[in-house]
Write a structure and sequence with these properties.
Layout: E1 14-17, H1 23-34, E2 38-43, H2 46-58, E3 63-67, H3 73-87, E4 90-95, H4 111-132, E5 136-145, H5 158-178, E6 182-189, H6 198-201, H7 204-212, H8 222-233, E7 244-247
Parallel strand pairs: 1-2, 1-4, 2-3, 4-5, 5-6, 6-7
Helix pairs in contact: 1-8, 3-4, 4-5
The chain binds NADP nicotinamide-adenine-dinucleotide phosphate (NAP).
Length: about 260
């Protein structure tokens, strides 16, 4: 975030954000931290974890940093255990990790790739929340990161898009299961030029085409997604659960 006035909605709260050493996850961890949360960041590579923790601490944020590949059961359990050992509670979980390993049409996607997409994009969120659930406080909040592609999976990201569609249903179902103590909501970002999306956004003509689909005439930023995630995570959204917010500059999604 810039130097503008930042609210302090998360004083005394503990937030876990998965896949949070770069891009959208890092932006979310930074925003929650600047608003007073103790943040638990993680990703697959120690080096990325070390670099991210330094950047966040330099901004005065309280951080616990742990290596966690979201499809590794032991590492997921360790993430929750270490968080509870250090802070004794969990108030916010942001499930942000995803993979997009193929541009093949769905019917030509390898069996093993179908498994990987399901494992990382959907199942790992469920299993992480299963481990976290006993520690979620009254008034806690889960935010799942889906994608605008959930609504109309594009040809080059078709099966990825379908896993993101599944997250919209998962949000509804978990909101019912975890009510009334924990709210569960979802963010569907538009196109954000991160490493993950660089196969699209670094190509000038694709980039221009994506921009032209927005009403606000630009791609999004991690800060745009972080601001919306912080809204859902905060008590400002205390009467909102089971919902998905599209944060895509007005790109077509749904009525
Ligand atoms: P990104 O900038 O490439 O960052 C990905 C982060 O996730 C890195 O910190 C990476 O660190 C970590 N990571 C990757 N695989 C992981 C795994 N299996 N387990 C744990 N950490 C992992 O990606 P992003 O664009 O911010 O994407 C974040 C989320 O936003 C994803 O769910 C994506 O589907 C969604 N999204 C993105 C866009 C977009 O346009 N960028 C649009 C809609 C939705 P390591 O390499 O150290 O693991």
């Amino acid at each position: 975030m810039g130097t503008g006035k930042v609210p302090r909605r998360f004083e005394g709260k503990v937030a876990i954000v998965t896949a949070s050493t770069q891009g959208i996850g890092f932006g979310i961890a930074e925003r929650l931290g600047l608003e007073g949360a103790s943040v638990v960041i993680s990703s697959r590579k120690q080096k990325n974890v070390d670099e991210a923790v330094e950047k966040l601490r330099a901004r005065g944020i309280e951080v616990l940093a742990i290596v966690c590949h979201v499809s590794n059961a032991q590492q997921r359990k360790n993430l929750i255990d270490k968080t509870v050992q250090k802070y004794g509670r969990i108030d916010i979980v942001v499930s942000n990790a995803a993979a997009n390993p193929s541009i093949d049409p769905i019917l030509q996607t390898e069996d093993s790739i179908l498994d990987k997409l399901w494992e990382i994009n959907v199942k790992a969120s469920i299993l992480l929340l299963k481990d976290a659930a006993p520690h979620l406080q009254k008034g806690s909040s889960v935010v799942i990161i889906s994608s605008i592609t959930a609504y109309d999976p594009p040809a080059s990201m078709a099966m990825y898009g379908v896993t993101k569609t599944a997250l919209l249903g998962l949000t509804k179902a978990l909101a019912a299961e975890l009510a009334p103590n924990t709210r569960v909501n979802c963010i569907a970002p538009g196109f954000i030029p991160t490493k993950f999306a660089s196969f699209l956004t670094s190509n000038e003509s694709i980039r221009n085409e994506l921009v032209s689909k927005t009403l606000l005439n630009r791609l999004g930023t991690p800060e745009d997604i972080a601001a919306a995630t912080a809204l859902f995570a905060s008590d400002d959204a205390s009467y909102i659960t089971g919902e998905t917010l599209v944060v895509a500059g007005g790109m077509p999604s749904r009525l």
